[in-house]
Amino acid sequence: MTDKLIYPRPSPRDLAVHTLLHDLQEDEGLFQEFLAHREEVSRRFGVDAEATRLLVDLDYPGLVARGIHPILVVQLQRHIEWGMRMSTTAPEGD
Amino acid sequence: MTLTNAEPAGATLDEEEPRVVSAFCVSHAPQIFLGPPEEDPAEHRRVHDGYRLVARRAEELSLDALCVVALDHLHNHFLDLVPMFTVFTGDPVVAEFNHQKVTTAAAPDLANGMIDFLLDAGFDPAFSQREVLDHSFMIPLKYATEGGLSVPVIPLIVNAYVPPQPSIRRCHDLGRALARWSARDGLRLGVVATGGMSHFPGTDRFYHPDIAADREVLDWLTAGDGERLVSLSAKELDDRGMVEMRTWAIAVGARGADSQATVHSYWDSGHCGYAVVEL
Question: With respect to CATH, is domain B22-278 assigned 3.30.1490.100?
Answer without folding.
Answer: no
